[in-house]
Structure formats: structure tokens, C-alpha cells
């Protein structure tokens, strides 16, 4: 996989103390096993603050609560959306947490900055029939179609993130135990059950399609491109859009919609929330609880539509 940009790349007029702070921060993110996309986003946000602070003659240990309030106000004046503000604040909070651990600063000024209120949005899910139609519309007659059928059967069957799908190796699938070994966020390994339709599709792909795609060249990746290399997350999103259009499902279908559908359908079927949390790889149960709101919204809609006194 491509290495993420380091936080000091692409930034101008950043003082050496800030460059050292950014290097320290990036090293900590790597040590914690942060996803490369997270590293890049956090590094970019931290470098933006470093550039602004340098322009104002401020060193890392001179940034306090009032300084960060000025920085946040500047972002708001420039039209930063609440979600963007929340992400940047999370980045800066993580930056100063790292600097505090290394003794560069005496406290974390970002802890005092309140996070902006975000609109409560429910994750986008597909109905079971829509998922079935989407998967069944992938004909699986050519190597690429067989790969895509296996890819998206597994995405829905085990609720994997796009990053987790492309990181899988051939050895990640355990057919005997009907499960997949996943290297998730923070380099945490989990084992997730996999259904029979997904396992059948993967077996067909491994037997017939993958050898044709790799051309016999050594490659550890489970899912490979037509050139025999490991797929990227953009490949996964692009191919899902193609098949969603082909199946005439709702627009804007993305890999995370399959993950959300996986969790929602498990909850509707009576699965325990803690079990869903483990399968999704969520560090906190509060993250998983969003699916209870999805189910609650569905029940309220059914009530409003059907009850004579609703």
C-alpha cells in the first residue's frame, strides 16, 4: 500500500520546533497502528495549525486555550462545516496529547475546546432484498466478476470496512472455521464469522479467477486487480457503484452501506449488541448503539404508517 504523506510534507513556513512536533506526532500515529487515511488527515490538520502558529510567532508550548479559540474562530470564519471542525479538533487534540506524553507541552489545550454540535444522521442501509438483488446481479462469469461477487459477498457477510477488505491476504480466510481474520483499526486483530454464500464465492474466485488475474505471479493479497496487484479502496468503491447501477438499487451505495446493512440486519434478527460490536471491531459500545437508533426509526415509521391512532 502507498505510504501516507508525513505531516511535514507540503507545508510551507513551518518553524523547526513545529516540524519536530509534527514528526513526533506522526511517529506516534504509526506506533499506535493508525490507518494511513487517518494519519494523512490528522497530519494535514496538524500541519495547518503549525503553519498558522508559525506565522503568528508561536511555538508548540505557547499554544494555549485562547490561542486555539482564535484558530477555531478563523476556521469558522472561513466557512468550515461542523463536521470538518470536529475532525480538525480531534486531530489537534491528538497532536497535543502526543506532545504532552513527550513532555513538549505541560497540558493539552484542546481538551478545553468544546466540540461543535453535529446533526444526528443515521447510517445509510439497504433492505435485505436490495442487498440480495445487488449481489445476485453480479453474474460471476468472468474473473473480474467472480472477484467482485466474492468481494461484496464478503463485505456484507462479515461487515468489513473497505480498508479491511483490501488488506486481506489469501491466508485470512479460514474455510474450516467459516471465519475471516481481520486486521482492523489500531492494528487490532479480530475473527469474524462468514456465511456460506460468501465462502462459496471466495472458493470459486480462488480456484478460477484469482490465478487468471495474478498470472501465476507471487502475491499475498486476497483480492487483486486485473493487473494482479492488491486492490485499493477506490477500486472497491468504484466497482460497487458499477454493480449498484446495474442492479438499479438506490444511488450513492458505498462499501460502508454494506457494513451498516450487515449490522442493522443482525440487530433486526435478534443479535446481541455486544456481539455486533465485536464483529464490527468497535472500541466502544456507544459507537455500535447508532444501529439501535436505526431500528427505532424503522419501528416508528412502521407504527406511523400502520396504526390507526398514530
Automatic annotation (TrEMBL):
Residues 9-100 form the Core-binding (CB) domain. It is found in: Cytoplasm. It comes from the Bacteria. Its main location: cytoplasm. The active site is at residues 161, 185, 256, 259, 282, 291. Keywords: Cell cycle, Cell division, Chromosome partition, Cytoplasm, DNA integration, DNA recombination, DNA-binding. Forms a cyclic heterotetrameric complex composed of two molecules of XerC and two molecules of XerD. Belongs to the 'phage' integrase family. XerC subfamily. Site-specific tyrosine recombinase, which acts by catalyzing the cutting and rejoining of the recombining DNA molecules. The XerC-XerD complex is essential to convert dimers of the bacterial chromosome into monomers to permit their segregation at cell division. It also contributes to the segregational stability of plasmids. This is Tyrosine recombinase XerC. It comes from Solirubrobacter ginsenosidimutans.
Amino acid at each position: 500500500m502507498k505510504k501516507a504523506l508525513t505531516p511535514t510534507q507540503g507545508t510551507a513556513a513551518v518553524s523547526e520546533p513545529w516540524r519536530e512536533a509534527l514528526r513526533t506526532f506522526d511517529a506516534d500515529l504509526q506506533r499506535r497502528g493508525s490507518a494511513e487515511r487517518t494519519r494523512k488527515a490528522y497530519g494535514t490538520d496538524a500541519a495547518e495549525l503549525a503553519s498558522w502558529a508559525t506565522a503568528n510567532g508561536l511555538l508548540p508550548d505557547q499554544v494555549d486555550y485562547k490561542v486555539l479559540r482564535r484558530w477555531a474562530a478563523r476556521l469558522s470564519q472561513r466557512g468550515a462545516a461542523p463536521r470538518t471542525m470536529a475532525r480538525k479538533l480531534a486531530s489537534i487534540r491528538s497532536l497535543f496529547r502526543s506532545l504532552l506524553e513527550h513532555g513538549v507541552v505541560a497540558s493539552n489545550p484542546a481538551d478545553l475546546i468544546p466540540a461543535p454540535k453535529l446533526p444526528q444522521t443515521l447510517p445509510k442501509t439497504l433492505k435485505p432484498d436490495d442487498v440480495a438483488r445487488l449481489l445476485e446481479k453480479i453474474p460471476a462469469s468472468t474473473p473480474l466478476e467472480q472477484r467482485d461477487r466474492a468481494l461484496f459477498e464478503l463485505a456484507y457477510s462479515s461487515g468489513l470496512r473497505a480498508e479491511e477488505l483490501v488488506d486481506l491476504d489469501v491466508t485470512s480466510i479460514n474455510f474450516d472455521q467459516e471465519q475471516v481474520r481481520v486486521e482492523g483499526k489500531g492494528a487490532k486483530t479480530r475473527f469474524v464469522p462468514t456465511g456460506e454464500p460468501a465462502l462459496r464465492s471466495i472458493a470459486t474466485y480462488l480456484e478460477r479467477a484469482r490465478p487468471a488475474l495474478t498470472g501465476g505471479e507471487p502475491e499475498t493479497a486476497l483480492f487483486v486487480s486485473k493487473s494482479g496487484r492488491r486492490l485499493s479502496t477506490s477500486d472497491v468503491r468504484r466497482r460497487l457503484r458499477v454493480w449498484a447501477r446495474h442492479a438499479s438499487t438506490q444511488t450513492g451505495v458505498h462499501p460502508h452501506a454494506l457494513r451498516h446493512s450487515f449490522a442493522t440486519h443482525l440487530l433486526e434478527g435478534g443479535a446481541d449488541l455486544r456481539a455486533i460490536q465485536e464483529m464490527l471491531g468497535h472500541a466502544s459500545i456507544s459507537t455500535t448503539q447508532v444501529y439501535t437508533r436505526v431500528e427505532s426509526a424503522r419501528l416508528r415509521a412502521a407504527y406511523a404508517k400502520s396504526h390507526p391512532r398514530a
